[in-house]
Amino acid sequence: MSLSVTTRRTWCALAGAALALSSLCVGPLAAQPRPARAGTPLKVFISVDMEGLAGVVTNGDVGGTAGDYQYFRKIAAQEANAAIEGAIRAGATEVLVRDSHGSKQNILPGDLDPRARLLRGASTGPKNMMEGIDSSFAAVVFIGYHAKAGTPNAILAHTSNGNVVDFSINGVSLPEGGYNALVAGLYGVPVVFVAGDRAVVDQLRGLLGTVDGVAVKEEIGTAINGLSPQAAQDAIRTGVERAVRARARYRPYALTPPYAMVLAVRQGGKSFEGAVAASPGTYTFTSPDLLRVLAAFNALK
Ligand SMILES: [Zn+2]
User: Fold this and answer.
1) Phi/psi of residue 6, each to 5°?
2) Could you give the CA distance from residue 63 to residue 156 in angstroms, rounded to a whole number?
3) How many Å lie between the centroid of ligand 1 and the Cα of residue 107?
4) CA of 30 to the centre of ligand 1 (A)
5) Distances (CA, A) of 116 to 11, 49, 121, 152, 251
6) Which of 153, 200, 247, 292 is deepest in the core (most CB within 10 A)?
């Protein structure tokens, strides 16, 4: 998603951080190859954000005209293509890429591997970054993801937009990758792989349990020490192939309904039927329907 300029954080200095990029690939050992049986469909869903792409360090890299957005939207397509290739090597028969950043019109359609379909543009539905997911998919992959609002030592950390301070369901504070994993879990689909900064990989592993992934960069103050785009794409290709082959090891993410949302925002004043403004800047809403809770989140954030 997008992060407004006014909410850009001043990153804590992290003096003397030593990086071991060779250890950035996390996740289980590769499973034995299990080729898809002839005629058996294997559908993989890939959600592509931008803040966690290799090389991205400021808001100017992911939008507007002042920075390197035109360059990084190409990188978004290339990281998506690496994930598509990995999925197909693992036996995927169909791949759907959801452009998930800001306007959802970042990847130029002609830049995407033609073996995949592209879900492009904003939608009015509550699935948002997961628009298009359903129970026909076998695995979900996150590319270019970032940590939630308020995460220390993270690149462009935010939750949905700059107004959100925290979003929790049933007491679990959720990054975008967390509630998107819940949407996939609603359809019984596990998240198998995440690419982004070190903070989001750690955050999603803490939340989802076992998930494969690659940290394409680490923070040093307001700077990043990261993989080259080529090295990141190589790691994504290899990692997605490994994770999709091993998909049976990963569990769909779920919380027990009813879903009790608490949303803290900087600027309140919005309304949604059934939601309560519990205090200035804090809304609560509870429903047995996760998508209804997400609709409330989208209306109130
Ligand atoms: Zn984004």
Assistant:
1) -70, -15
2) 13
3) 12
4) 30
5) 37, 17, 16, 35, 25
6) 200
Could you read off the pLDDT of 19-56 as tens digits, one per residue? 333 333 333 333 344 455 567 899 999 999 999 999 99
158 a catalytic residue:
yes
What sign does the CA torsion over 79, 103, 123, 289 have?
positive
Ligand 1: centre distance to CA 179 (Å)? 14
What does the block give as tokens for 296? 């409330």
**Contact predicate 73/166, CB 8 Å:** no
Contact between residue 239 and residue 191 where contact means Cβ atoms under 8 Å apart:
no
Cα distances (angstroms) measured from residue 20 to each of 12, 51, 218, 226, 229:
20, 21, 10, 10, 17
pLDDT tens track for 173-211: 999 999 999 999 999 999 999 999 999 999 999 999 999
Find out whether 108 and 97 touch, Cβ atoms under 8 Å: no
| Domain spanning 39-162+174-253: CATH superfamily | Dipeptide transport protein (3.40.50.10780)
Spacing, Cα 34 to ligand 1 middle (Å): 34
Could you tell me if residue 58 is left (phi over 0), alpha (psi between -120 and 50 degrees) or otherwise beta? Answer: beta
Percent of the chain with pLDDT over 70: 87
State if pTM tops 0.85. Answer: yes
Catalytic residue from among 98, 127, 158, 237: 158
Q: How far is the CA of 35 from the centre of ligand 1 (A)?
A: 34
Phi, psi at 75, each rounded to 5°: -65, -40
200 Cα–ligand 1 center, Å: 13
* pLDDT tens-place string over residues 210-246: 999 999 999 998 899 999 999 999 999 999 999 999 9
Confidence label for 292 from pLDDT (cuts 50, 70 and 90): very high
